[in-house]
Amino acid sequence: MRTRKNSGFTLIELAVVIFLIGILASMGIVALKAQLASAAISATKKKQDTIKDALITYLGHYKRLPCPAIDNTGVESRVTTNTPANCTGNFGLVPYATLGLPKSAGMDGWENFYSYGVSPQWTLTLTGIAPVAGGTSTNVSAQAFNVGIAGVLTIKDRTPATNAVTTTISSNAVAVLISHGKDGLGAFTSKGTQNVLPANTTDQFSNVTIATWAIPATFYQREYTDVDVPTYGAFDDTLQWFSASDLTTTLLKDGILESAEAQWADQVTNIKNAIFSYLQTNGNCSPPTNAQFVSSILTPNNIPSTDPWGHTIEYVQCVQKIRSDTTTLTAGGIPGAQFLNQATGFSNTYSNYCTNPQQLAYAITTITNTSTTPITKLPIPTPTITALFSTYSNFMNNQCP
Questions:
Q1: What is the pLDDT of residues 217-238, one digit of tens each?
Q2: What is the CA radius of gyration of the chain?
């Protein structure tokens, strides 16, 4: 009698199949994790670009950047009792609500809030009106935004990750946006609570906000590594930083902001006109002295004391007095002016600006190149004596003995 053979799998064959299924499943899980990680990074960078666009739009409208938020409401935080209302701190959370963005836009691919740092001077609007308590504008040019100024944030790299010596990427960044990556160390969650901080010797620690909301001395933008290297640690932060040109180029091109050069041309005209006006109302027919320049020329005419690049405008008085009696007084070969003694009248540093006896005075500033490094002094010549007599001959004959 013939017996039928069992056609099923043997235990060994089943074990092999299960083993192969396990390998395939493991590979699938690894691939899925990699895909999810890639999607999170992609979403993080895309949202950073969205926030950058919102910052540019805000800057164009308000002529300043918003302060950071300090909670999950996404509203910028200012000290409203101060005059003007400066930021509570200049490193906190992205102010998504103030920027007109939904909460989801303020969170990275791992559902944590972006950290946001901003240079203090970029958070106030420059106007001709004195600041008030709780206000966001000031007439103090050294405290407010202008297209010619740079930022103050420092960004560094460390290559390799164990290197004790860092490389400076930028020392004049205007703002930074930071995602704290997959590990989320130091990030703020959607509920507004802060995750555990990274070790305080690591580079990631420099990228997290602290209780004072203060800007750290250095931000780090390093290559990704999940290896916890000694001292400086692993690094999975995604940092995007913005220079002045990153934020203003489009606005300048569209005419929303006026270039520093155009502002400077207007400032020069205003200074010249103010000196003319001063001469007409000044009983002794003299240009303002060096000490009177700010109080008599700049302040009453709402002219900033700094140029659009943030440098203080200096002033040199070349002519002490103008006289309409051209037959009795001659100075430097030009009738109608009594000149200051160049050895004692002003600093020898500027003596070369008064070598032309036709000039009444010079306002002097420092122009800069694209890297914001001072390169030369730029004098503003006021109208010449000849032009003054030609334009205001009747006034001068009647008022200047």
A1: 999 999 999 899 999 999 999 9
A2: 32
Q: Residues 264-313: pLDDT tens digits?
A: 888 888 887 887 778 777 655 677 777 888 888 888 888 888 888 887 77
Distance from C-alpha of 100 to C-alpha of 113, rounded to nearest angstrom:
16
CB atoms within 10 A of CB 277: 14
Reported pTM? 0.76
% pLDDT > 70, the chain: 72
Q: Which residues contact 292 (CB under 8 A, 6 or more apart)?
A: none
Amino acid at site 241: W
- Higher-pLDDT residue of 153 and 292 is 153
**Residue ranges per domain, the chain?**
13-253, 260-399
Residue 52 has pLDDT above 90, yes or no: yes
